[in-house]
Amino acid sequence: MGGPLRLFVGDDWAEDHHDVEVMDGAGRRLAKARLPEGVAGMARLHAIVGELVGDDVDQVEVLVGIETDRGPWVQALVAAEYTVLAVNPLQAARFRDRLGVSGAKSDAGDAHVLADMVRTHAHELRSVAGDSALAEAVKVVARTHKTLIWERTRHTQRLRHALRDYFPAALVAFEDLDATDTLELLGKAPTPAQAARLTIAQISGALKRARRKNVAEKAAAVQAALRADHLGQPEVVTTAYAASVQALIAVLTVLDTQVKTLQGQVEAYFGQHPAAEIVLSQPGLGPVLGARVLAEFGDDPGRYITAKARKNYAGTSGNRGSEAVSNDAACRAAVTAEAMS
């Protein structure tokens, strides 16, 4: 028969169900079904595989293509010793275009695309590793921490755009819009008129609470900028902008608090991992960046066959010159991952 039997499963997942299609090595559809999310759906998938392979279950390799690498369903697939291949949605979209199928999206059609993709391009896809529970925990908090930082940046940009439209003097007065002193002062005085009435004592108090240096000099500069002449909006429009800015400030304040809180969780979980010391031994990797490296590379020693495979995942294979320099952090991550195995 020339090697073990292989079944190729495309799993298009949604919140409450999975559309699956099973192919053989020749691309023939062997089964298709819509399975509920949860234990009943997983049991049905095992039953479908069992019905197809019969008594040869130990001689069959099942490869599953799915557009996620996390969650209880994926963990159950890994626990069943299926080879789970995480497919980037952009990869699936491009593969669908190459097949020349209709651009109309359907769950069953996507399951077919994923099954055919793992049948023909499994060697180009990333296998979901059997990482330890602690590595998964590090991944959860590290990714959430990073997402909150991104959200803080987005809301800071929204604040900047609003101020530019009605209160440009604030952009001159405050260098860091997401700084605690800036948020405090803008929260107290969100309109140009209110800000112009801020006293040196009020400004200095905010700067001191934010632990700024050269408080007197900076307070005078902030007050001068806020009292300078500038173009403005009609009062009713300014009031509306001020309400929007206060809402953004409230969100930014919460985000800043939660970013700091979650950073402590990232450092705590990462510090418990046996590989933390190895990761931190690499130049430029502190607890937060080190936790992200561990989270994305995982700790399954069998995940990468060669050092080149690690570099491929880091996106550093074949880099030269300035491009290699720009990928220095990824290179360090690849070296760190090698040391961990």
Structure, described:
- This is Transposase.
- Pfam families: DEDD_Tnp_IS110.
- It comes from Actinophytocola glycyrrhizae.
- Residues 9-168 form the Transposase IS110-like N-terminal domain.
- Helix 13 packs across helix 16.
- This protein has helices at residues 39-53, 72-79, 89-99, 107-121, 133-166, 168-173, 180-188, 192-196, 200-209, 215-227, 235-272, 276-280, 287-297, 307-314, 321-326, 328-340; strands spanning 5-13, 17-23, 29-36, 60-66, 83-86, 126-127.
- The protein is an alpha/beta fold and 341 residues long.
- It has a 6-stranded mixed β-sheet.
- The chain folds into 3 domains: 5-128, Ribonuclease H-like superfamily/Ribonuclease H (Nucleotidyltransferase, domain 5); 140-269; 274-340, no CATH class.
- The chain is elongated and about 85 Å long.
Features of this protein?
3 domains; 341 residues; disordered C terminus; single chain; elongated; Nucleotidyltransferase, domain 5; alpha/beta
Count of discrete domains:
3
Number of strands: 6
Shape: elongated
Secondary-structure element order, as H and E? EEEHEHEHHEHHHHHHHHHHHH
- pLDDT average, as an integer? 86
Order of neighbouring strands in the sheet with most strands = 3-2-1-4-5-6
Helicity range of the residues? 55-70%
What is the CA-based Rg, rounded?
27 Å
- Into which percentage range does the β-strand content fall? 5-15%
Spans where pLDDT lies below 50 across 5 or more residues? 320-341
Main sheet record: 6 strands, mixed
Q: Would you tell me the structural class of the helices and strands?
A: alpha/beta
Number of helices: 16
How far apart lie the N and C ends?
35 Å
